[in-house]
Amino acid sequence: MSARIEEPTTPPETPALRDEDRSLIEALRETLGGETLPVQPCADEIATVWVPANAAREALRFLKHRSRPRFPMLYDLTAIDERSRSRRDGQPEADFTVLYHLMALEPLREIRIKVALKGDAPTVPTITGLWPTASWYEREVWDLFGIRFDGHPNLRRLIMPPTWEGHPLRKDHPARATEMGRYSLSEQRHIDEEEALRFKPEDWGMERQSDESDFMFLNIGPQHPGTHGVIRLVLQLDGEEIIDVVPEIGFHHRGAEKMGERQSWHTYIPYTDRVDYLSGVVNNLPYLLAVEKLAGIEVPDRAKIIRVMLCELFRISNHLVWYGTYAQDVGQMSPVFYMFNDRERLLGIIEAICGARMHPNWFRIGGVAADLPDGWDRLVRDFLDYFPPKLREYDGMVMGNGILKARTRGIGAFNTEEAVEWGVTGPALRATGLAWDLRKERPYGGYDQFEFDVPVAHKGDCYDRAVVRVEEMRQSLRIIRQCLENMPSGPYKADHSLTTPPIKDRTMLDIETLITHFLNVSWGPVIPAGEATGCVEGTKGLYSYHVISEKSTIPYRVRIRSSSFPHMQIIPFISRGHTVPDLLAIIGATDFVLADVDR
Amino acid sequence: MNPVLHSFLVIQGVLIGLMTLAGVLVWIERRLLAFFQDRLGPNRCGPFGFLIFVADGIKMVTKEDWIPPGADKPVFVLAPAIIVITALLGFAIIPVAPGILILDLNIGILFFLGVSSMGIYSTVLGGWASNNKYSLLGGLRMSAQMFSYEVFMGLALMGVVILSGSLNLREIVESQTGLWYVVPQFLGFLIFLFAGLAETHRLPFDMPEAESELVAGFHTEYSSMKFGMFFVGEYVGVTLISALIVTLFFGGWQGPVLPPIVWFLLKTMAFLLFFVLLRAAIPRPRFDQLLAWGWKYILPLALLNLVITGAVVLAQAN
Amino acid sequence: MKIRPSIRKACSENPATVETAFYIVAVVAVLTTLRVVTHTNAVHALIYFIVSLLAVALLFYQLGAPFVAALEVIVYAGAIMVLFLFVIMMLNLGREQQEEERSWTRPSVWAGPGFVSAVLLAVLAWVISAEGTGPAETAYVGPEEVGLALFGPYLIGVQLAALLLLAGLVGASHLRRHERRTVLRDDPVSEESQSRAGPEKGGGV
Q1: B125/C83 CB distance under 8 A
Q2: Sequence-ordered list of residues with C-beta below 8 angstroms from that of C27, at least 6 positions apart, any chain
């Protein structure tokens, strides 16, 4: 599958470094002692700077606290196995690269710091002291790449089971079960695996008792009706008061990033659908934005607006599921049924347009899979008329309910600063009073054409998160109405040679066009070499895909940065001192999808 | 009729009636909930799914009866029996209609309070004996919850006792000719309703079970007919509370035209449906909130109700 | 209030049945109380205790004091025992405690107290037999009588008991008041603070 063929068009120009980035990198260089820092051009115009491993921590501290602007959010931290790369054009020698992606929110600025590492068991200093959220990211990188983080207080596997051998995202680790030895579960191994899952408080620096009482350690999950999926939360309880929580994730890990390394650019799209399985096509978009940046494809207007409309339909659909389960989690039995009924209507529209409901796999490189069907406008209009009164009804039933307010107000609160510190985005960030929405800050995919408000709330507790989401549904309705009334005509897919599936109009003329078409269908397009991040305001926060192309039919690496991951990580921080029912309210208000946490 | 035969028939009638009612209630509750929630509910088994309770019963009896290895076996087995026994015993004092009364006890209300306080042991011991942390938490919640609400329940009843001058339920019903006690004792009625819900631990006060928090609380480890006993006990308990509300505040069997027993059943059924509606509508408060509301608001209100009722009765007597 | 002296009626009609019932209940009470003392499992002992209290309540009932019987069930068997159970559930007693209990029931432990108690029992039996009492005169004591007695001649006693309970209540709530654990929500924003409970203490939670 990895055959390389010459690209039929010239690659897009690599954008030059912007002035403000240049001065920032200059300041960074001075802080680190004047050594030249290699700058890597990327297709997405985010400044990418290589920093020596021993200076990484210093560089990040500078960028967090002293640079201008300051970058208070550690947006992503991941790694790249560089050992089988062939096109590194001017990048420093490395076996592994650790990639730090920082973000400044007001105004939006991003910078990537890359650290080159040598050898088979590389180490790099930890930054858990700088950002608490780095802890899970570093554990993930250790787990999947085998890169050690010096000074990390608890560097243990996060995603894979503790008994796993090897580091799956290394290029030499098999990607399929058929490449590995035959699996058998002997009785002894079964016992060992079970034992490995036993929670030992001492490993986490937890006391078994205080001066006053013995603590109870309670496993919530992996199978529990309140967790909405397979996750284990180990609670340290004093009575019903939560002293500490240890979330244990990875039960839903399917290796979505590893799969990317053996799917063609086109055939990877269905896998993205299943990352945040409640948001359907919203997952397609960041991946495609990244790929389209690499390929230099400009998506036509109609395709853009169709994409926006589908994304907003899915935003409502996601929020409806959240709305119902949120009420369910605080013990209200009925709303979930009403909301699933409404979601059913919505999925009916999505099915009519896409042909599938939860995982439509409908966006394509350069556009969408098909044009809107006849009569789509009637379906959408019906829903736009039907839904607002329902929302008002739910306001009274759920949001206005006194018991629900008593259960969720003041529970699991954090402020804007803490949210940024922990990498929290989306409705939870907006609930802290910061009107920050990527669709406004850096409109992508045609969102600049729409009129909508960014709902905010101010206390940052569970109730406020709910308030923001409910209002977001109304704003989505506004956007959908604008889509409905101003749907442009024109093609639904870009006229570009790298779009998938390739356009058929120009084939069947001669053998050349036939071969090109045949190859583009069977092998898929060859995307120009480079790196790019595609980022969208997803239903739960920022979703982004960082893709690296080696000018081949398959990605060299796909990194999925999901928003549920940091949202899950902050749960211990906001749960301490609350009680078990509060934890369930917090979980309900967090709106995570475990497939999105584990990927 | 021979008095022994008469009382035997009454006892059998009440028992069989109750067990059937508990079964029918399962069907009614599921159908009603489905109706409230825009769905169908059980509609396959028999006409309108009516026979679902038979199917449920068969399912429960034939399931594997599992006792967890770490459980305290005798207590584990004892616990579900207690709830059914106490709930059924409570019916002994309910005057269904003139002449249909198992036990004409002159301390009827106290008997009910005593029996319902015995009912706690079922859930608490079940929670403890299961050797499961969720069950234990459920049992702990249950003991604190019932312990608190027993107090309010007793206090709420005292207003009725003052007005009627009797602890005998038959006499209380008879003294309500003309004016049901729900009018002078509206506060007492509300408190009793609230406390009754807490006692029978039904949603919204089902903290001891609290599905989304404690899996199934005290009966997490129970299966087969042992679980079925908890199930039956809960429904009989709800019926008992409804019957008591009717007896104490809504004139019991009294009513025009229709025969007394029909009135009694109609009124009781109305409250049962009301409980189902509550279950469908209201979220669950937090456990400590429930206790705090109880001690901070309900207790003073109950005392106030008691003092005012006493004062009014005294003033009228003078 | 109209008193319905059904029990007295039963007594006079059929004293033999009542006596049999009395002895059955009394034997149950004694046996269960013995099991309370000798049982090594706290919860099982407690269940015996509850049965014992119920038996005593029945005795009260037979002696014509239904109100006291009901109170015995509601207050002792229903409320106080639940509190006991509540505490025992929280103590997390295991097999070790049972072993410990068992070690306390060796003869060397109970022989002394047992002997002294036996002496007392003997004296009691002697005194009673010397007095030569017949079957007790049962007088019906209903709620009204109890109420009148409590708020009449024994008013001071009731008030003193109320004061004592209030003191107990205040004391209990004071004992329970302890300093809240200092920092439940630590500050993650301070730079490099090593005291942070996040990744530093708990290890990457």
Answers
A1: no
A2: none
What contacts A222, CB < 8 A, 6 or more positions away? Answer: A230, A231, A232, A251
Count of the separate structural domains present in chain C:
2
Over 80: is that where the pLDDT of A579 sits? yes
Report H helices in A153-208: 187-197
What Rg, from alpha-carbon coordinates, does chain A have? 24
The answer to whether residue C45 scores a pLDDT higher than 70 is: yes
Give the pair of three-digit tokens for residue B215. Answer: 């899996």
Number of domains in chain B: 1
* C98 shares a domain with C19: yes
- Cβ of C202 within 8 Å of Cβ of A139? The answer is no
Domain span at residue B263 reads 71-317
Mean pLDDT of chain B: 84
From the number of C-beta atoms within 10 Å of its C-beta (0-12, 13-18, 19+), residue A417 rates as middle
pTM of the model: 0.82
A154 touches chain C (CB under 8 A): yes
Is the Cβ pair C205, A152 closer than 8 Å? no
Is residue A579 within 8 Å of B288, Cβ to Cβ? yes
- Distance, in angstroms, between A544 CA and closest chain C CA? 23
Q: Is B129 on the interface with C (CB under 8 A)?
A: yes
Instruction: Report, as an integer, the average pLDDT of A42-53.
Output: 83
In a domain, A554, yes or no: yes
Tell me the pLDDT tens digit for each residue of B73-85: 888 888 888 888 8
Tell me how many domains chain A contains.
2
Exposed, middle or buried by CB within 10 Å (0-12, 13-18, 19+), for A92? middle
Range of the domain at C93: 8-105
Answer whether B284 sits within 8 Å of A403, measured CB to CB.
Answer: yes
User: Are residues A253 and A510 in contact, defined by beta-carbon separation less than 8 angstroms?
Assistant: no
Is residue A69 reached through a cis peptide bond, with omega within 30 degrees of 0 on the bond before it? yes
Confidence category of residue C137, pLDDT binned at 50, 70, 90 = low
Paired residues of A66 in beta bridges = none
**A232 part of a folded domain:** no
Q: What is the DSSP letter of B47?
A: G
Weakest mean pLDDT among A6-15, A214-223, C26-35, C164-173: A6-15
C89 and B140 in contact by Cβ < 8 A? yes
Q: What's the complex ipTM?
A: 0.83
What counts of helices (H) and strands (E) characterise chain A? 20, 15
Chains in touch with B (3+ beta-carbon pairs under 8 Å) read: A, C
Residue A335, domain CATH: 1.10.645.10
- Is C18 within 8 Å of chain B by CB? no
* Alpha carbons B109 and B128: distance in angstroms, whole number: 30
- Under the banding of pLDDT at 50, 70 and 90, the label for residue A16 is low
Out of A117, A150, A183, a domain closes at A150
**pLDDT tens digit sequence for A480-513:** 998 888 888 888 888 887 888 877 777 777 888 8
B213, A226: Cβ pair inside 8 Å?
Answer: yes
Q: Measure CA of the first residue to CA of the last residue in chain C; give whole Å.
A: 67
Chain A residue at shortest CA distance from B132: A218
Q: What is d(CA B217, CA B230) in angstroms, rounded to the nearest whole number?
A: 12
- What pairing do the DSSP bridges indicate for beta strands A47-51 and A39-40? antiparallel
Distance (Å, whole) CA C47 – CA A127? 57
Q: Residue C166: is its pLDDT beyond 90?
A: yes
Which residues of chain C have a CB within 8 Å of the CB of B129?
43
A491 has a chain C CB within 8 A of its CB: no
Q: Give the percent of chain B with pLDDT over 70.
A: 100
pLDDT exceeds 90 at position B117: no
Alpha carbon distance A276, A22 (integer Å):
36
pLDDT digits (tens, 9 = 90+) for A450-460: 888 889 888 88
